[in-house]
């Protein structure tokens, strides 16, 4: 948090899906409604990190634990 601009730049340029999954874990029984498609803007604050971008809506609610 001492270098919020650097953290924002790293997240914006190289936020991989496994990192996003670690930051925002899904419950096994939760329905998936949206899939992240882009990361367009990142804001770092002492109390929170906002990752903004575009997402794709999943046509039907699919449980996150599903193997389909």
Question: Would you kindly provide a written description of the structure presented here, covering whatever features stand out?
Answer:
This protein is of the alpha+beta class. It has 2 helices and 4 strands; from the N terminus they run ααββββ. A two-stranded antiparallel sheet has the order 1-4. Strands 2-3 form a two-stranded antiparallel sheet. It is elongated, with a radius of gyration of 14 Å. The protein starts with a helix and ends in a 5-residue tail after the last strand. The mean pLDDT is 79.
Features:
alpha+beta, 2 helices
Give a brief outline of the structure.
By secondary structure, this protein is an alpha+beta fold. It has helices at residues 4-14, 17-23, and strands at 31-36, 41-44, 49-52, 55-63.
Helices and strands, in order, run as: HHEEEE
Biggest β-sheet, characterized? 2 strands, antiparallel
The CA-CA distance between the termini, in Å, is: 39 Å
Continuous helix count = 2
**% residues in beta strands:** 25-35%
Spatial ordering of strands, largest sheet:
1-4
The portion of residues assigned to helices is 25-40%
User: Mean pLDDT across all residues, rounded?
Assistant: 79
What global shape is seen? elongated
- Residue stretches low in confidence (pLDDT < 50, at least 5 long) are none
Write down how many β-strands occur, each being a DSSP E stretch of 2 or more residues.
4
Which structural class should the secondary elements be placed in?
Answer: alpha+beta
**Rg of Cα set:** 14 Å
